[in-house]
Amino acid sequence: MGQALQGDGLTTKINVGPIHPSTHGVLRLVVELDGDEIVNVEPHIGFLHRGVEKLMETRNYMQDLPYVEKLDYVAPEAYSEAYISAVESALGVEVKERAQYLRVVLLELQRIASHLLWLGTFLNDLGHFFTVFMWAFADRDKILRLLQEHAGARMFYVNMRLGGLNRDVPPGFEEEVLSVLGDIEKRIPMYESYLEKNEIFMERTKGIGAISSHRAIELGVTGPVLRASGVNFDIRSSKSYYVYDKLNFKPQVVSSGDVFARYKVRMLEMKESIRLVREAIRHMPPGDAVGMPIRLIIPAPKNKEVRVYRETPRGELLIYMVAGQQGPYRVSFRSPSFINLAALPEIAKGAHYADLFAILGSLDLVIPDVDR
Amino acid sequence: MKVEKEALLKTAEEMKNKGFSYLVKITAVDNISSLVVLYFLRNLNTGEEETLEVELSPVDASVPSIMHIYKAADWYERELKEMFGIEITGRSAPRLLLEKWNGIEPPLRKNFEWGKPYKAMD
Question: What is the pTM assigned to this prediction?
Answer without folding.
Answer: 0.88
